[in-house]
Amino acid sequence: MPMMHRREFLQQTKRSTLGMAAGVTILADAASVRAAPAADKVLLAAVGVRGRGAHLAAGFLQRGGCEYAYICDPDTKLFESRAKQIAEQQGGKMPKCVKDFREALDDKSLTAIVSATPDHWHALSTVWACQAGKDVYVEKPPTHNCWEGQKMIEAARKYARIVQVGTQNRSAAYNMSAKKYIDEGKLGEIHFVRVCNMKLWANRPPVPDSDPPPGLDWDLWNGPAPACRYNAAYHNYWNHLWRYSGGDIANDASHQIDLARWLVGAELPQKVYSTGGRWNSEGVAETPDTQIAVWEYPKMLMVFELTLYTPYMLKISPQIRESLTEFPYWPQCATRIEIYGSKGLMIVGRHGGGWQVFDRPQREKPQVVASDNGKFPDPEHQTNFLECIRTRKTPNADILEGHRSALLIHYANISYRLGGVKLTIDPKTELITDPPEAMTLFRREYRKPYEIPEQV
Questions:
Q1: How far apart are alpha carbons 37 and 306 in whole angstroms?
Q2: Statement: residue 85 has pLDDT above 60
């Protein structure tokens, strides 16, 4: 297939649907990008600014040493307000607003993208950015399916790009001290880990298809997902639809799963099983509101528990996130991790919740033998990404680790979608060896022209 330069592509796009031939490499000379030194000021493009993207933009600008050159979003109604907010933080300099972030990738002065799109766009935006010689900060979960993570790693390594996943718990000093405590053997042998994700997230009623609202390029937003007419439920409740995401085990719990796996040093499991249901079924949601997953390792079980109908469970409050002395009320902490060692029980809270180790109670009173705390580590994670852009060191949440954590999520959902069948995993290849039909969900069919190429 002949190579196509980005400018040729964009010219063709104006005459037809946005398109790019699968397998096209954006750079004529990828090696020249690998050898190029980082600029003094990091120039960023915000890819997706509807929610988390706007928050990340404010956070990165507070770190200093960077500037937003582009805002990219298929919803042009967001441009005015988001551009104004960013300009106020960067001395009045307005970012350029474009619907298609590939226009920003054509700018050779651009250093990196910050991808805060819906989940189904994370992998494709990362691969295209790497091909264009840009570093990437990509929100969690990094992938929609297992195969995408393999392609992201391949692209990051081939083009020597920094790819940081937005699992910011890996940049928290208090989590590093928890890992040190475990690594030094102070918790003893660990054979059981529980990961919780329990809260209220109600189903939503279905609505009929309609025309997209003014300013929204629905085809571009839908991207790699199967073609369909605009539906407001799809647009606003995409976390709970298989075509766009993997439910709350992928959305919120990806933080706890990644943190738990990192703390105990777990790689890939040998067996995976998941069951549950969408028992509040009066609505548009497809993914479960009640789910259990079990990952079997040699001499260790890691268990995940999900409920989305439990308003009495508490996510860690902003006050505790910013406190250095307060801990969550662990029995009703919605996002806690419990690590059962032979010498003690460690309970960990994500996003500034801290950790405590409990010994056997005395007269029914808790006995805390070790603890540490810290604030929500968003600033540290963003700083780490900017530093790695300049130093070319591996970031705290490298795409390889993000992919491995996402695999746990995808394996669990594959088991769930196949009716709770137990999967057998080959940890060396990441493939599901049994049952054979599970591999049909290992990747998805991509809609042209929004395809991840076989060879990145």
A1: 45
A2: yes
Confidence of residue 4 (pLDDT cuts 50, 70, 90): very low
- Count of CA atoms in the C-beta half-sphere (13 A) of 157: 9
Q: Which residues does residue 291 pair with via DSSP β-bridges, in sequence order? A: 276, 306
Radius of gyration (C-alpha) of the chain in whole angstroms: 22
Alpha helices in 20-145 (DSSP H): 30-35, 52-63, 79-89, 102-105, 122-131
Name every residue whose Cβ is closer than 8 Å to that of residue 212 and which is 6 or more positions away in sequence.
218, 230, 235
CA distance 72 to 45: 7
Residue 216 sits at φ, ψ, to 5 deg, of -100, 125
- Torsion angle of the four alpha carbons 130, 132, 134, 135, in this order, in degrees rounded to the nearest 10: 0
Tokens of 418: 């196949």
**pLDDT class of 95 with cuts at 50, 70, 90:** very high
pTM: 0.92
What would the mean pLDDT of 314-337 be, rounded to a whole number?
96
* Residue 281: pLDDT over 60: yes
Nearest to 45 by CA among 106, 131, 118: 106
Q: What distance in Å separates the CA atoms of residue 57 and residue 352, rounded to the nearest whole number?
A: 21
- CB-based contacts of 101, cutoff 8 Å, min separation 6: 45, 47, 70, 72, 113, 125
> Rounded distance, CA 212 to CA 219, Å?
10
Does residue 19 register a pLDDT over 50?
no
Mean predicted confidence (pLDDT) in 405-414:
98
